[in-house]
Amino acid sequence: MDHADAVPVAELLDERRYLLEVTCWMLGDAREAETVAAETYRRWYGLSDARRGQIAAPRYWLAKTAGAICLGLLARPSPGASQKDTERRRTDAALEKEVSRVLRNAPDSRAPAERAAFVLNDESGAASESVADIVGHPESACAELADRAGRGLRCRRSRPTPPDDHDLVARAVREACVHEDAELLESLLCPDATAFFDGGGKVRTLSRPVHGTRQVARSLLTLLARHPRTALATQSVNGRTGLVVRYGHQVAAVISLDIAEDRVVQVWVVLNPDKLRSWNQNQPPAPGGAGPSRPRT
Predict the structure, then answer these.
(1) Residues 6 or more apart from 118 whose CB is under 8 A from it?
(2) What is the pLDDT of residue 29?
(3) What does the alpha-carbon distance between residue 151 and residue 191 come to, in Å, rounded to a whole number?
(4) What is the pLDDT of residues 164-175, one digit of tens each?
(5) Which of 160, 237, 278, 297 has its CA 20 to 30 A from that of 56?
């Protein structure tokens, strides 16, 4: 697990808000502030897991990095700059844009890679080296991804869960998370359960899938740690009962659950602000189970 990125959802939102406030204050433009914040997170994910784990205060690192980017923007060449200097800056900007594009896609590449490896390998019968080139992982890693996706899919196909049973399990997961009951939560997960986190490079969240009952339970309990302004409700997500996390009146995360019989096989956590925009458009809090979680004591 990326321990540096395993933090409560309330902290993630406060951190992002702080970063936007800093960049907006420096640049005086909300749109440019969003661009700088996105670039800052791209640079964060560009670090190795080991390097991120060594950063004791991620918020300070993010603010320092964002400040440096802002200073670079404020120091852009004036109209009187030499042609050679302007061309050099254009080249640098083009290179930075390409690197940023790669980094922007990196955080979300894991879960789609698993599905792509399965489809290309098992469903389409593509050669392993071709799958590796397309997915962007070594052949051995692609084989593992395809196997994991195939096992999850076969599990769901062989043991479809009726809607009422799915609803009961989802509500039990909520109760376990609200009361921070790790033992109960682990009992609701398959031994090879997997959790995926989609932050879209817009929030500092786990960038790799988490596997196993204990690891998945730990990641969820960390993300959903009790906070006076945080509420967790069961609500329809993609046609099945899932979980919706609110911070104040804002939807901060949407969690869908793949369930086989009475166990959760896969957990999909969407934290990407862009994908949550529709959830935050004049949507009232969901009735039932939407009360605030107990405050810390």
Answers:
(1) 145, 146, 149, 150, 153
(2) 86
(3) 12
(4) 999 999 999 999
(5) 297
